[in-house]
Each structure stands twice: as C-alpha cells, then as structure tokens.
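User: Could you go from structure to sequence for me? I need the amino acid at each position, not a summary. Structure tokens:
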C-alpha cells in the first residue's frame, strides 16, 4: 500500500494489465481507458483515464487534488472482462504533516502526550505540570512548592566558568516582560553602539545597487554603475563641459552692439527701396503667373497639356517604340508617374518593422515634485550642445564680414525706375501666357515634337481605337468570309438548341464516342460501356444469351469467396447458416448443438440432438 499526501496532485503507475485469455501477454493499447475510485470505503465512482502506456502493461494515472481530498484508503481499479484481467491498487491518503514526516522527511510528527503511566497529563501553555515526589531516591518536602537545590554545576561546568551560554538559553526565552528596567539600562551602558562618524561612513559607503526602488531617495540619487534613469545619470550625461567654456555675456553684448550699427545702415538702404504698393503689384503679377505655370519641370521641360496640334506635328520620329507597341496591343499600361504615385502613397501601416521609422524614447520616470523632476525638466540637454565661446566668436567674425557684404549689395539695388522696367516685362509675359492652367498644365498648341516624345503611356484608350480604326490591318473581303462562317455556325447551333435540346433523333454511323448525360429512348446496336447509372431495364431485357459465360463464373466465384462475416439479415434456414456448421465453431452440451457466427462466440443457431448409446459412432466420411 502506497502513501499519498492529502489534496495533492500526483501521478501513480497502475498495472500490470495482461490479456484475459492467457494472463501473461501485456495489454499495451489501453490509453484513455477510464478508471474507478473508492474513497475511504465509499462506493466506486468515475476516476481519471489511463495515460500513455509506460512499459510491460503499466500505465500512468494522474490523480488531481480532488481525487486525493479524503483521508483514508483510496482504491483505484479498472475492470474489462472482455479485454484484460482485473487490475486494482490500494493507497492510503495521509495528512500533510504525517506524509511529510514519514515519506518526504521534511517535517516531524506532531505528538501530544495525554497520559503518563496511564494517568491523564495536566498541562498549561503546552507544557506538562509535574509534581515531583522524589529526587535521587529522597522524598521531596510537600510543605512547599519549591525545591531546595544548591546547583554547583550545569552540564558538568561550574557556574562561574561559563555554564550559561547562548546555546543554553532557548530562542525567545528572554522576552520584553522578562527584562527589568535596570537590566535594560545596564545592557545599554555596556553596549558598543556605533558612533555618528561610523554611521555616516556606512551610509556613504553603502552600495547603491540594492537601493533603487522607485520613489526612494536611493533611486532619486541613482546608481552610478547601472541606473540610467536618475539624477546621477542625467548629470553624468549632460553636465559634460565646464560652464566657463560657454559664451559669456560680454561676448554676446559685443555682437549686440555690432548688429545695432550694421543693421541700422542696412535699414537706411532698405528704406529707400520702392514702397509696398509697387512691390504689391509685382507680387500680384508673379502670383498670377505662378498659377499658370506648372509647379515643376518634367525632364527639364515645362509640363503642358496639348490643347491643339498643328498639322503633321506627330511624325514617325516623334513616336517612341513603346508607343507603337501600345497602339497595336491596345494596352493601358500604367505610366511611370502612376507607379511612382502608388509607391509613395502606399499605406505605411504594414511597413513598420522596428528600425524603419525609429523609436520614441520616453521617461517612465517619476514624480515631478522632487529633485529628480527638476533635473529631468531643466537639465534636458547636454551642456556641450549649447553654443561655445569659440562658436560665438565665429558668428561674430561671420557677421562682421557677411553683413558688410549684404550692405554692399543692398546699396547697389535698383531704384524705382529699374522696377518700372521689370513691371513692363512682366506685363508683356502676361499677354503671352494662357489665362489659366488646364488640369495643372499650360494649355498649348504643339508645333513640333521631338523624337520618341509620344510614348505608350501618353496615349489615351480612345486614341488607340481611333488609330486602329484608320489602319489597314485586314481587307473587307476577309471580314466578309469570317462573317459567312460565323453565320453558318449560328444556324447549326440554333438547330441543336440549348444543351442539345433540339436533337430528338440521331442516326450515327458506327463510331467510337462518349455520351455524358441521360439518354431517353432506344439504342439500336452495341454499346461499348456505360459508366453512369442505368435508370431501369425492361422485363426480359437481359436474356441468357446476352450474358457472357464468364459472368456466371464470376458470380459463382464471388459467392464462394465472400467473407461470411460480411453478410447480415440472413434467414434461419439459409445456406449461410448451413455453411456455418461446416466452417465455424460448434459445441454440444446437454443434448443441444450450438453453432456460432464468425466471431466463434455469438450463437447462430441451435438444434436438439437425439443420441443413442448403442449407435455406431461416425469416425470418417468419403464422398463419391
């Protein structure tokens, strides 16, 4: 009997399962067979199923906490008289303390002493109250509850020689109540508590790694060796240059004074430029021209829509090879602009592999109302990323040179007369541009076209149709010939009808052909084979002469070779039951002959036998 721990899942091996016939052969195909359980002598109920066969007819059975929740005997059994001998196994379900003590070795048995020498034990607080009557054979005085003992040694050691040690005092024996106030004072006076300096050294020498809980002072200060989300990491990363290396206020004041002088000079020149009204007119003309010009050149040329084309403008050399192919094939292949548009308009949602568009890094960090929050908010860039004194000096030198150059240019800007000339030129351009763009392009008449300018993508579908209509791809005579053939086919198909409905009488010469579908009517002549179902055969439709001699032989062979176990619904007095007596198992008991079916178990038929003790026994037969 095996021990089991109460309310604990466990897998046990059950077996061996052996064949019910010989009691030896292992049964190895019983996985998933159901078991039955009996708890503490109760009625059997459904249990877990057998697992995968282990070896030699043994199977694992997985017991759950529900299966082992009752203390006492637990019986597991599997019974199937048609397959194997009965198998059962008994277990004892123990409490956790008992199981862990006896089997696991991880606990000890809980023992409560209730009697001493047959008498009940009196106890208090888990300890027995003992009345001592003798010590070393001498009677103890009963007039007092105390023992007059003069102990000079403890465990063989004199009291004055360290008899009371840490090991001799049980854990927790000396508690707060056991200590008097003067004892506490005495203990403290004799202690060696660390000094303030010692405590300070310990605090500042403490390894920061173990004090990084979010929200603590340790986490706010940070771990210099690891943590990157603290004041330490921000200062270490961003306070990477001296403040004195950055630009001084004096240098910034120098640049400010320089700008005051030089920009005042530039302003004097710009004040002399044409007034806002003149520039507004020029700007309006330029804005108008902008609306009538394509937004960008295409292939170095102005992108225009052809509103009209002079005679003989579209020459053979103007047609690219792919345009000719497009015309004859009548294709509508997408232009390169369409393909490019599809590529750039592709939804990026499905193309978000990490590293393609980058990551957004954030601060999971913390309370903004702390030192950490102030550092995180204000020390938000490296000091080295700010302007250095050298870079400010460079800007100062650059402004000295470049603003002087700008001033030289503005001094030479054209006066109002020159702007009048520009306005006249713009007015002239206005008269030579279409009033508006058409489809985003200039509406223009093409007077000439460069070689290969007209490509396949430039041709609209109706243009291809128009060109094809004007071509000489075939003569009218060939078209008429094709039409005559088509007309003849239409006549024939009309006579046949939909799905051959017009065919009511077919007189075919001898030939090989397949017919798919139902054939209603008579067939005169021989038929090679019929692969579909035959709806019916008229009475006497199949005669002896129509059957080949081989058919009878095949029918007889099939009857003789047929497995009798495949036949069902036979009559009691049938040839099948007669043959069973010759081939199957039979037996005689109490004057009754029993013939079985093909499984040699199920009774097929019985017969009452009449016997005679004086009759001659039949020992052989020799048919002639």
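Assistant: Here is the amino acid at each position, in order:
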């Amino acid at each position: 009997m095996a021990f089991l721990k109460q309310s604990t899942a466990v897998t046990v091996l059950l077996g061996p399962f052996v064949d019910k016939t010989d009691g030896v052969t292992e049964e190895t195909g019983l996985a998933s067979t159901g078991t039955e359980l009996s708890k503490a002598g109760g009625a059997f109920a459904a249990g877990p199923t057998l697992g995968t066969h282990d070896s030699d007819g043994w199977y694992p059975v997985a017991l759950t906490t529900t299966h082992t929740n009752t203390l006492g005997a637990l019986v597991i059994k599997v019974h199937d008289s048609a397959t194997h001998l009965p198998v059962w196994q008994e277990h004892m379900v123990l409490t956790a303390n008992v199981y862990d003590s006896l089997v696991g070795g991880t606990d000890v048995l809980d023992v409560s002493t209730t009697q001493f020498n047959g008498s009940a034990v009196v106890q208090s607080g888990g300890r027995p109250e003992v009345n001592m009557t003798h010590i070393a054979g001498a009677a103890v005085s009963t007039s007092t509850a105390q023992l007059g003992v003069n102990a000079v040694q403890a465990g063989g050691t004199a009291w004055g020689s360290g008899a009371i040690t840490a090991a001799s005092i049980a854990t927790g024996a000396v508690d707060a109540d056991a200590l008097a106030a003067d004892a506490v004072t005495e203990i403290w006076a004799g202690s060696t508590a660390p000094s303030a300096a010692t405590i300070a050294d310990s605090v500042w020498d403490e390894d920061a790694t173990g004090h990084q809980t979010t929200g603590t002072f340790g986490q706010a200060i940070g771990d210099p060796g690891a943590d990157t989300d603290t004041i330490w990491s921000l200062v270490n990363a961003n306070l990477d240059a001296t403040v004195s290396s950055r630009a001084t206020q004096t240098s910034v004041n120098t640049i400010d004074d320089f700008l005051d002088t030089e920009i005042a000079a530039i302003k004097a020149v710009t004040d002399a430029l044409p007034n806002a009204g003149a520039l507004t007119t020029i700007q309006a003309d330029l804005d108008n021209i902008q609306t009538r010009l394509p937004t960008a050149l295409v292939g170095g040329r102005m992108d225009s829509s052809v509103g009209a084309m002079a005679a003989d403008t579209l020459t053979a050399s103007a047609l690219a090879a792919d345009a000719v192919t497009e015309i004859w094939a009548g294709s509508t292949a997408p232009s390169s602009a369409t393909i490019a548009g599809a590529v750039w308009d592709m939804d990026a949602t499905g193309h978000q592999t990490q590293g393609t568009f980058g990551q957004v890094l954030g601060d999971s960090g913390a309370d903004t109302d702390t030192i950490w929050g102030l550092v995180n908010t204000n020390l938000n860039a490296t000091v080295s990323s700010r302007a250095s004194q050298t870079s400010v000096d460079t800007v100062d030198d650059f402004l000295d040179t470049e603003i002087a150059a700008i001033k030289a240019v503005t001094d030479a800007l054209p006066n109002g007369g020159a702007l009048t000339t520009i306005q006249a030129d713009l007015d002239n351009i206005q008269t030579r541009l279409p009033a508006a763009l058409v489809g985003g392009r200039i509406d223009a008449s093409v007077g000439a076209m460069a070689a290969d300018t007209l490509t396949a993508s430039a041709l609209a579908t109706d243009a291809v149709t128009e060109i094809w209509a004007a071509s000489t791809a075939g003569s009218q005579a060939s078209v008429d010939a094709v039409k005559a053939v088509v007309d003849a086919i239409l006549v024939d198909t009309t006579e046949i009808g939909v799905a051959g409905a017009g065919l009511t009488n077919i007189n075919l010469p001898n030939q090989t052909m397949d017919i798919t579908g139902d054939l209603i009517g008579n067939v005169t002549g021989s038929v090679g084979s019929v692969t579909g179902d035959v709806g019916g055969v008229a009475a006497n439709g199949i005669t002896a002469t129509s059957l080949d001699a081989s058919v009878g032989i095949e029918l007889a062979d099939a009857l003789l070779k047929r497995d009798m176990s495949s036949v069902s619904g036979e009559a009691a007095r049938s040839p099948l039951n007669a043959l069973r007596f010759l081939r199957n198992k039979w037996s005689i008991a109490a004057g009754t002959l029993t013939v079985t079916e093909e499984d040699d178990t199920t009774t097929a038929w019985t017969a009452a036998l009449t016997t005679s003790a004086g009759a001659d026994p039949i020992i052989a037969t020799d048919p002639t």
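One structural detail worth keeping in mind: The chain is about 30% helix and 15% strand.
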